[in-house]
Amino acid sequence: MKVLIIGGVAGGATAAARIRRLDEEAEIVVIEKSGFISYANCGLPYYVGGVIDSDESLLLQSPEGFYERYRIDARVNSEAVEIDTFNKQVKIKNLLTNEIYFESYDKLLLSTGAKPVTPEWAGKSDKVFTLRTVEDALSIRSCIEEERPQSAVIVGGGFIGLEMAENLVHRGVDTTVVEYAEHLLANFDLDMACVVHGALKKKGVKLRLNSKVEKISERQGRPEVFISGAEAVCADIVILSIGVAPDTTLSKSAGIELSDKGAIVVNERMETSKKDVYAVGDSVLIKHFVTGKPAYVPLAGPANRQARVAADNICGLSSQYKGAQGTSVVKLFDMTAASTGLNEKAAKLAGINYEKIIISPPNHATYYPGARIMLIKLLYEKATQKIIGAQIAGYEGVDKRIDVLSTAMRAGMKAAELKDLDLAYAPPFSSAKDPINILGYIADNIERGLVKQAHFEDLEKLNQCEVTLLDTRTKGEYSRGTVEGFINIPVDSLRERIYELDGSKPVYVLCQSALRSYLACRILAQYGYECYNLSGGYRFYEIVKTEKAVAGAYPCGKNKD
Predict the structure, then answer these.
(1) What is the pLDDT of residues 398-457, one digit of tens each?
(2) Is the pTM of the predicted complex or chain greater than 0.85?
(3) Phi and psi at residue 352, in whole multiples of 5°?
(4) Domain at 2-39+55-115+245-314, CATH from 3.40.50.150, 3.10.350.10, 3.90.550.10, 3.50.50.60
(5) Can you name the residues that pair with 93 across neighbouring β-strands?
(6) Residue among 42, 315, 521, 531 flagged as catalytic
(7) Distance between CA 506 and CA 468 in Å, rounded?
(8) Which pLDDT does position 550 carry in this prediction?
(9) What is the DSSP code (8-state) at residue 385?
(10) DSSP-derived 3-state class of residue 140
(11) CB 364 within 8 A of CB 394
(12) What own/partner pairs with CB < 8 Å and gap ≥ 24 does 212-218 have?
């Protein structure tokens, strides 16, 4: 059997190695357009920032090493230019010699990946970069080290854009992130992204939200970014991080079925519409694990798993790819932001009736030094109570919690079942009631009817004359700031002062983190009051209110800090 693989890196190189482990006799040829067969593209921002010092550290395997270990013929600087699926052959161009030749195949695997989105308005300046390949990283780092730029604009507030922002700041570069949407990180909801906004600004990153870039041109040899309805921003370099699109020109010309947005359509076996042609990675359309609908999820983890499935099926084993939920994590200076599954916007688009829980627990026992607050949002479907998504912003321990929630989703667990998870505990790492358990306790209380929950956006719909708004924090906390309209009765005094509340009105209860307000709700409910615990607490409210005010104050690109 001869297997021809177009594209290396996460998908192609992983599949090639798996095929060899399954079939020692197979002839395996990998065609890679770049000069590197297998590299850690997720590490590229850290190479630019100097955290990873040597470019050799990014190279996971060389063509020579690939052959020595696996007897795989890996050809770099080689471009597949045409696929003939009828005669089972591929036309290839050697990019160093311009030689054209043909390779036949019994099985063909496409791992052509994705390409950075580069709109026409980006212009042609040599100071405007994208970051997708090792060559891109080498160019940016060379520019930084040789020309010593003092300022940079990053267009796009996704993973790569924000990782680049961190690494440029570490390099001493004054950095501005320009984002078209109202918040950074599209996988987050606005309220959770507000935590990220505040953290980045404290580190010196300037944010321009709600900002539409119209064009990039040069002014006295420096790129100038023109923003709709706002003053242009001039910088020494510009990094485009708008997103990626599937690189499927080759597949389209071969008549392989594509989605309306250009991704390769595959089944659970990673087979395309053409016989004996498979596809994996950032070029394919797969099934979303939560919704069951087609989704484009260009992440390294799914690409590796898809590659194994395709390799198994190429070698006669029966494997299926069950879909992705988009679990991801990003380091932002000392902060970590992570998510899995759906956010609220995606849940609404999918027509899912959901409940959400927002908590702000410490990452470990508070009596052990160094405890820091993390913010967790959990979404679960009301009908089935199954977890459909989660977002976390915090410091140490965020990655651990998102992985637990991702695993719970994969296992089909109900939100309340999180209370039963037997998680590792020691004071430096967690609390006896881990934040994950607390999510389960709250879900259990909600589903048992022991507490009714409300959210801060619900307050906007209330007639305050018809309800009581109660802040149960201490007098000192209350005096330092509260939500407009809330009266103060500390939870420890509530039983003695309950007569001050109108029993005919629903009571909306607030505290710092939603714990004391829950205790107050249990007291009030047993005295016959209709009461609602405000999720997230005042700590969450204060963060969101501050950052929303900043973002909302500068619509159409006028946010100047």
Answers:
(1) 999 999 999 999 999 999 999 999 999 999 999 999 999 999 999 999 999 999 999 999
(2) yes
(3) -95, 130
(4) 3.50.50.60
(5) 79, 100
(6) 42
(7) 6
(8) 58
(9) -
(10) helix
(11) no
(12) 212/180, 212/556, 212/557, 213/121, 213/155, 213/178, 213/180, 214/121, 215/121, 215/123, 216/121, 216/122, 216/123, 216/125, 216/128, 217/123, 217/125, 218/123, 218/125, 218/127
CA torsion 141→147→148→151, rounded to 10°?
A: -90
Q: Would the pLDDT of 94 be above 80? A: yes
Residue linked to tokens 């999918």? 350
Strand partners, 168: none
CB 559 within 8 A of CB 210: yes
Query: Known catalytic residue: 42?
Result: yes
Q: Let me know: does 271 contact 284? Beta carbons within 8 Å.
A: no
Both tokens assigned to 544: 């969101």
Q: Measuring CA to CA, how many Å separate 365 from each of 241, 337, 361, 369?
A: 38, 21, 10, 8
Show the tokens assigned to 150: 């003092």
pLDDT of 287 strictly over 80: yes
Write down the pLDDT at residue 559.
Answer: 42
Instruction: In whole angstroms, give the CA distance from residue 188 to residue 191.
Output: 8
Q: What homologous superfamily is domain 334-448 in, according to CATH?
A: FAD/NAD(P)-binding domain (3.50.50.60)
